[in-house]
Each structure stands twice: as structure tokens, then as C-alpha cells.
């Protein structure tokens, strides 16, 4: 039983259409796949149609852009109603902020001599309802400024770089509550990836569990063996479910193939049993 609970399509910053993603999931012999685009459910319908009548079970999800204190935290949410008004309002605010920061980011890039326009970014993000830095990275690749997304983040788009501009993120604790009210379950994505280990301590996880959090994504390529062991022990102390996923982005993120990280079947059962 192969279960991958974290993937992206071109509705956010992946490169496959939702239907292509389903075909690739079948080719990878997955039994269960969650589509978790950043801050949008726009891929659900197409993915659902492509999965209908196949042996693949599709779990509709999202990866929500949140904030805890000053740190950005990604929250995976599954089986939620995206139309639940408080949640829908947050999704609108996040996507607006994603789009509205673009001119300032491009101005920062032009300040260091890169000739890039909104049209260059629009060309590489036509299918995206939720636009992000990876699209600007793709535009920079298209202009021949950098070789790939990684180089674009390292030189231009990462924190403190010329194209970096902050954007809105929903309050993490509030969002966990919204997801529950919207009929879903939530899991903190890659909690200790990219230097957020200091923010999300065992005490914070305990508070988030009280707020309605169901799980922690432990099996993720951003975590090393020691971090996984520590996160597993925190999850077990608090009674949180342990999940895993590839964070597949198509050709947008190399070395994250589908099913490279997975969720244990018993843990998926616990996650689904927590659906309110
Ligand atoms: P944003 O939410 O628009 O600020 O962009 C963040 C997204 O960019 C993350 O969710 C990743 O998918 C992607 N990302 C972050 N760092 C990198 C990197 N070094 N290389 C490629 N993609 C990245
Ligand atoms: Zn992404
Ligand atoms: Fe993420
Ligand atoms: Fe992701």
C-alpha cells in the first residue's frame, strides 16, 4: 500500500496538470494520492475526474500558507470544504497577497539589472490560480538569467535577496480551527525543514494539538534521520498522527519524485478517523 499525501500540480507551482499528476501517480504504483496545491482547490475537479474509475484513491487537499509568530509555516489540510466562508476569505487574502507582491519583486530584480516584466512571469504561470516565487524563478530561467529554480532562489528570491518581498500568511492556530470547522483535518508540513526547528517546539505542537491539529509530516526530504526520530517521539507523546509525502512539483523541484516519501497505512487510517 503506497500512500503519498503531499503533491503539487500547475494550479500552484507544480508543472503537471492535475490529470497528468493522476497518470503519473498510477505509473508510480501509488494506491493513495493527495493533491495539495498551495492555497487553492482549483485542481480537485480535474484530478477527481482523472481518478474516477481507477484503483487510485484521491484525497483532496491543500497546503496553506500560514504564520506562527514571525515564521512562515505550511499547513497541509485534507477533505475540507474550501467554500467555508472564514477559510475562503483567508485563501483570497493569501492569493491576493501572492499576486500583489509581484510588482515589488520585479522592481527589486530590475534594481540589480535584470530586465524582467509581469508578462515574462504571466507566460510561465498561465494555469496557476496561486502564483508564487517559483513562477518568477521559471521566468528567470526563461530569460537565461539562471539555470534552474534552485539558483533563482539562492541568488534572487530567497529571504533577503533582491527579489524577496514578504507576503501575507494566515495565523496558524486560527487556520487549524478553520480547517476543522470546514470539515477537514490538518497536518503541519515539513515542520523542521528550512530552519524552522526553533519555532515549532514540542510545547508549540502540544498547543496546536489542543487547537485541533491532527498530524505532523515527518517523512519529508527536508528532514534528516535525527529530526525524524525526534518528531516521531513528539508526535507519539502528544498523540499526533505521523504522515509523509514527496512534495512532488513535477520538473519544478528536482529529486522529489512521487512516492519518494510515504505515509504508513495505519497512520492514514488514524488521519481519516479524525475527520470531524
Ligand atoms: P512562495 O510561497 O511564493 O513564497 O514560494 C515558496 C515556494 O517556493 C515553496 O513552497 C516551494 O515550493 C518553493 N521553493 C522554496 N525554496 C525553493 C528552492 N530553493 N528551490 C525551488 N523551489 C523552492
Ligand atoms: Zn510549492
Ligand atoms: Fe511547503
Ligand atoms: Fe509543498
What does this structure look like?
The protein has about 280 residues and is of the alpha/beta class. It is about 40% helix and about 15% strand. Helix 1 packs across helix 2 and helix 6 (about 135-140) crosses helix 7. The model has no long low-confidence stretch (mean pLDDT about 95). The chain is built from 11 helices and 8 strands. Strand 6, helix 9 (about 200-210) and strand 7 form a beta-alpha-beta unit. The protein has helices at about 20-25, 45-50, 85-100, 100-110, 120-125, 135-140, 150-155, 170-180, 200-210, 225-240, 265-275, and strands at about 5, 30-40, 55-70, 70-80, 170, 185-190, 215-220, 240-245. It is globular and about 50 Å long. It binds adenosine monophosphate, zinc ion (ZN) and fe (iii) ion (2 copies). Zinc ion binds near residues 8, 12, 13, 38 and 249. Adenosine monophosphate binds next to helix 6 and helix 7.
Amino acid at each position: 500500500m503506497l500512500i503519498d499525501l503531499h503533491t503539487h500540480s500547475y494550479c500552484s507551482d507544480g508543472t503537471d496538470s492535475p490529470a497528468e499528476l493522476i497518470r503519473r501517480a498510477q505509473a508510480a504504483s501509488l494506491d493513495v494520492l493527495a493533491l495539495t496545491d498551495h492555497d487553492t482547490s482549483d485542481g480537485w475537479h480535474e484530478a477527481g475526474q482523472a481518478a474516477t474509475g481507477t484503483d487510485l484513491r484521491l484525497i483532496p487537499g491543500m497546503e496553506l500558507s500560514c504564520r506562527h509568530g514571525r515564521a512562515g509555516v505550511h499547513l497541509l489540510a485534507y477533505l475540507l470544504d474550501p467554500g467555508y466562508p472564514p477559510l475562503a476569505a483567508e485563501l483570497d487574502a493569501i492569493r491576493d497577497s501572492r499576486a500583489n507582491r509581484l510588482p515589488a519583486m520585479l522592481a527589486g530584480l530590475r534594481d540589480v539589472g535584470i530586465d524582467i516584466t509581469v508578462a515574462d512571469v504571466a507566460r510561465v504561470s498561465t494555469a496557476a490560480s496561486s502564483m508564487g516565487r517559483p513562477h518568477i524563478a521559471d521566468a528567470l530561467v526563461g530569460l537565461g538569467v539562471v539555470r534552474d529554480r534552485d539558483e533563482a532562489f539562492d541568488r534572487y528570491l530567497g529571504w533577503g535577496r533582491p527579489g524577496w518581498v514578504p507576503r501575507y500568511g494566515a495565523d496558524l492556530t486560527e487556520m487549524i480551527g478553520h480547517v476543522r470547522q470546514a470539515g477537514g483535518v490538518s497536518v503541519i508540513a515539513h515542520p523542521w525543514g528550512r530552519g524552522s526547528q526553533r519555532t515549532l517546539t514540542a510545547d508549540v505542537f502540544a498547543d496546536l494539538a489542543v487547537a485541533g491539529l491532527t498530524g505532523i509530516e515527518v517523512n519529508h526530504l527536508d528532514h534528516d534521520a535525527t529530526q525524524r526520530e525526534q518528531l516521531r517521539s513528539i508526535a507519539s507523546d502528544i498523540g499526533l498522527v505521523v504522515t509523509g509525502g514527496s512534495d512532488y512539483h513535477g520538473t519544478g523541484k528536482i529529486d522529489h519524485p512521487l512516492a519518494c516519501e510515504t505515509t504508513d497505512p495505519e497512520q492514514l487510517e488514524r488521519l481519516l478517523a479524525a475527520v470531524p
